[in-house]
Write a structure and sequence with these properties.
The chain has a domain of 96 residues: Winged helix-like DNA-binding domain superfamily/Winged helix DNA-binding domain (Arc Repressor Mutant, subunit A, Orthogonal Bundle), CATH 1.10.10.10. The protein has 6 helices and 10 strands. It is flat. The two termini are 48 Å apart.
């Protein structure tokens, strides 16, 4: 079975007066395995008693909490190791001001071993799909181009925020459209930074 993924826009970066748009990949989840589902799967595939698996998970969870609470880093087989990070309740500039009640748990970290990542990567079969949670509203560039040209017949220029409102897309999609229109010679970019506007090409 493949891992489904989709590509999403990163925030635009400006370099030498030009805005560039890069993409990142994100997993489209196949669903969620609950503890009950997970135990039933392991019990069935590895022929282990269901009740013993439940007991083992409860015991491991309890001991993990106990050891972390005592300040230990806890290794967990080939998966990796667990550790804690702390935070201070308020900004402190003098070490003498810090008291135990003002220091608290910030997070629990799992650092996965390289061997686990390598073995997981070897099992993965990736397939790109369109995420069902993404909106496709307003992504027809032909329709958006027509609305833009009609707008520029009545106005001397348009900025990205106005374009978003005009065609009903988000900032990332707007930037992709506008860059495409620039390459096609439909519009030209004028200005830099927050003062950028687009005029007819």
């Amino acid at each position: 079975m493949s891992i489904h993924y989709d590509l999403y826009e990163n925030p635009p970066q400006e370099e030498d007066g030009k805005e560039t748009q890069t993409l990142h990949a994100r997993v489209v989840p196949s669903g969620t395995y609950t503890t009950k589902d997970f135990v039933e799967r392991v019990a069935a595939l590895h022929h282990l008693p269901h009740a013993q698996l439940i007991g083992a998970i409860d015991a491991i969870t309890d001991e993990l909490q106990t050891l972390l609470a005592r300040g230990y880093i806890v290794e967990f087989g080939d998966l990796g190791h667990f550790s804690l990070s702390l935070s201070v309740a308020r900004e402190i500039t003098d070490r003498k001001e810090i008291r135990s009640p003002s220091v608290r748990l910030k997070n629990i970290h799992l650092k996965v071993k390289k061997t686990f990542k390598k073995e997981l990567n070897a099992r993965m079969n990736l397939e790109r799909v369109s995420s069902p949670t993404r909106s496709s509203h307003g992504t027809d560039e032909g329709r958006c181009r027509q609305l833009l040209l009609e707008f520029l017949e009545q106005h001397p220029c348009i900025n990205r925020a106005d374009y978003c409102r005009l065609v009903g897309v988000n900032k990332m999609c707007a930037l992709r459209h506008l860059n495409s229109f620039i390459k096609a010679g439909i519009i030209r970019k004028y200005g830099s930074g927050k003062s950028v506007v687009y005029i007819r090409g």
